[in-house]
Design a protein that fits this description.
Elements lengths: L1 E2 L3 H14 L4 H19 L5 E6 L3 H14 L5 E6 L8 H11 L5 E4 L13 E5 L11 H11 L4 E5 L23 E5 L9 H4 L4 E5 L5 H6 L4 E4 L1 H7 L14 E5 L6 H13 L4 E6 L4 H7 L4 E4 L19 E4 L7 H13 L5 E3 L2 H8 L12 E2 L3 H8 L5 H15 L2 E4 L5 E3 L5 E4 L11 H14 L4 H22 L7 H6 L5
Parallel strand pairs: 2-3, 2-5, 3-4, 5-6, 6-7, 7-8, 9-18, 10-11, 10-13, 11-12, 13-14, 14-15, 15-16
Antiparallel strand pairs: 1-9, 16-17, 17-18
Helix pairs in contact: 2-3, 3-4, 8-16, 9-15, 12-13, 15-16
Length: 501
């Protein structure tokens, strides 16, 4: 998995690459420009007008190198907007500026506080003002530049980070002093701030570009944060064997549903089968028996004594199952809480996933935390997590509390949201690369529970089931959004698009 690095770590990796590859600083920037040009051509094949607004540091050098790489193509009308006098440029930026000046096909304009550029709303505006080295809020002329960019109506592509964004997290002192990017081509790995709600929105749609930094240098840098990608998913997925049978892919138990909430059980059960489970038994209240029999005919039913909610699990032999999940739509009634407590007393380590009302019951009865089996997977959204760990004042505090819960209780804690974060018992946090805002819809979390349950049943380790399950869930959501649009995605659509993986 890609490591998410601090700004200081990125400087070390750059220097190590230059020294040990070896490659000159200008050669490394030139490589970045070529990678950016290829990615831009793929992402924006119809864009004919490209304006590149450049600062005086290495981010500006990347922008100038991009201009040179695009200059050989007749597909773009290019304009370079230099925001500082040439004598203020860093060595790499000065090197590429001289080469830009020698290209008659490249229009290069000087920008100043008294002469802000006219920005064409039809153009793609590339933000190459400031990168990860920025350690201060923008003010004065620089803040004015950013506000000018944000008010232009342009589609904005940020190189590495949107200018003004604190790359290591924290809150922006002034969001009007941060470029609001439509897209960000981030170099080698995302930055932590892009993974968190307070600032991540400003980065727009992310694309991670491999610019060939030295792998030994990255290996020398310690970071608890990772970025889970398609390559990671491919490494984990187990091929199905020709002579396998349904028992080869897990016997799963789902405890879900209550009167008026049987949809949660249905969605989780459907997702479990769609994600590859061999056999699923659904324990549901009596009112849901007919619903489940019709909606998920593949499921074996275990019917509770109570008509309205889950109450009696004494007849359920948990030892018969390879994995179990509980919580989807079970409600918070006293009988359901008592049934959950009995279930936790016999739940198997490393093969349990808890979601939704199971977590709310535990938050209201904190002694149940001590019953959670080691390596159990819990899948809270933000409010459910804060019911377990207390209110948090910032994204960073919430991330810290999530990691503490995972390490102290030996749990896998899946905090749902954009770039869903999977905190492991060893303190590592894996952020997800798939998913979209269309998945913010009722039942989406129930689908995730079903997917993770299926993977646990198939023998994936808890950290694998959680990370791969989150990736699959998000990728299915992306496929569903591509089929319709983000505004029209439902949880059922997510289930139905799991097959596209």
């Amino acid at each position: 998995m890609l490591k998410i690095l601090k700004a200081s770590d990125i400087q070390f990796v750059d220097s190590y690459t230059i020294a040990c590859e070896p490659i000159s600083p200008e050669g490394l920037v030139g490589r970045v420009g070529e990678v950016l040009a290829r990615a831009l051509a793929l992402q924006f094949p119809q864009r004919r007008c490209v304006d590149i607004i450049c600062g005086r540091g290495k981010n500006g050098a990347d922008g100038l190198a991009l201009a040179l790489s695009l200059a050989d193509s007749a597909a773009h009308r290019l304009r370079v907007l230099l925001c500082y006098p040439p004598q203020e440029l860093c060595a790499e930026a000065a090197y590429f500026y001289e080469r830009v000046r020698q290209r008659p096909s490249l229009l290069c304009e000087q920008v100043s506080a008294d002469s802000l550029p006219t920005l064409n709303a039809d153009a793609l505006l590339v933000d190459a003002l400031f990168g990860t080295g920025l350690s201060r809020p923008l003010a004065g002329y620089e803040r004015t530049l950013v506000r000018h960019i944000n008010g232009s109506g342009c589609c904005v592509l940020a190189i590495d980070v949107p200018s003004g964004l604190p790359s290591d997290g924290g809150a922006a002192a002034d969001e009007e002093a941060v470029v609001r990017a439509s897209y960000t081509f981030t170099l080698n790995a995302p930055k932590l701030s892009m993974m968190l709600p307070a600032l991540g929105e400003l980065a727009g749609e992310l694309r991670v570009l491999d610019v060939g930094l030295h792998p030994d240098a990255i290996g020398k840098v310690a970071s608890p944060y990772r970025y889970f990608t398609q390559a990671d998913a491919r490494q984990l997925v187990k091929p199905r064997k020709k002579f396998s049978h349904k028992g080869s892919y897990g016997r799963c138990l789902l405890v879900a549903g209550a009167q008026g909430m049987m949809g949660a059980a249905v969605l989780a059960a459907r997702a479990c089968y769609r994600a590859g489970a061999g056999l699923l038994t659904a324990h549901v209240p009596a009112c849901g028996a007919a619903v489940m029999q019709v909606a998920v005919p593949e499921a074996v039913l275990s019917v509770d004594n109570d008509e309205r909610c889950i109450t009696n699990l004494r007849r359920v032999d948990v030892s018969r199952y390879d994995a179990l999940a509980a919580g989807c739509g079970i409600g918070r009634s006293l009988p359901a809480a008592e049934a959950l407590e009995r279930l936790l007393q016999v739940a198997p380590p490393s093969r349990t996933v808890l979601d939704a009302d199971a977590l709310n019951i535990i938050a209201a009865n904190r002694r149940l935390l001590d019953l959670l089996p080691e390596n159990a997977i819990i899948t809270p959204h933000v409010k459910e997590l804060e019911r377990l760990v207390g209110l948090c004042k910032s994204d960073e505090e919430r991330l810290l509390r999530q990691r503490q819960l995972a390490t102290e209780r030996r749990l896998v804690v899946v905090l749902k949201g954009a770039h869903t974060a999977v905190a492991l018992p060893n303190g590592t946090v894996c952020f997800n690369s798939t998913g979209n805002a269309g998945m913010a819809t009722a039942g989406s979390g129930d689908v995730l529970t079903g997917v993770i349950l299926a993977l646990l049943g198939q023998g994936y380790a808890p950290e694998q089931a959680a990370s791969l399950g989150v990736y699959m869930h998000g990728a299915a959501g992306d496929a569903a959004a591509a089929h319709t649009s983000q505004s029209f995605v439902t949880a059922t659509d997510i289930v139905e698009h799991l097959y596209e993986l």
